[in-house]
Structure prediction request, 234 residues.
Amino acid sequence: MTDNPYVQRKSKLLREFDKTISRIQPLLQSRFGEQQADSFVREAHQEYALLIPQLPYIGDKQPFTQFIISTGWFLAMYRVLQQHGGTVEEAGQLVYDASLAYLQAVPGFARRFLGFMSFSPRYMKRLEKRAAESQVRKYVGDYVFTYVEGDGISFDYGVDYTECASCKFLRAQGAFEVAPYLCAADQLYSELLGWGLVRTMTLAEGAEKCDFRFKKGGQTRVALPASLIKWTGQ
Prediction:
């Protein structure tokens, strides 16, 4: 019996991965053809199964644990693309499209509820508490961040990440180059959940921190990698 919580939930995690990747099956088929797409799905499943025991445990606190789990999804896809001569830019497009498919699969009422709860006093108080706890660095692979009080005008609250669990995991896996594409998915979350996210820098791009600023119903302003700007037409 293993003590690794991810290994204990391996079957469930693999089912979640299969469900997520099935949502981009039509996209994979249009890019690679039906046979190659099926092969990609099988290989990505196998790659993710190998990654599950390596996912860093950060205390089972959501949504942070889910961020790590999804980082494992995208790393598995990236690894398979690499094995078939694919580029990080192509992987970035898959990450973006898979994130969009994942979010669009959530019913509209649920997205509205999640967006509403992201600005509730209870959520912000809990986030502030977690920020203080993160400074203790109980888990080496965890996020470390500070809570920023809103100014009442330009943003409601903010978070400054000085250590990113996803970035640390990808660096340890020798795949740090895909990190900016994971960060780009925050644009989708903001637009579909009404976060009004403004972010001017990220650890993935070599900055000293990620400066998240949230304004309920505000305009999303998140920089995307050049290849994604071309891909999305933004």
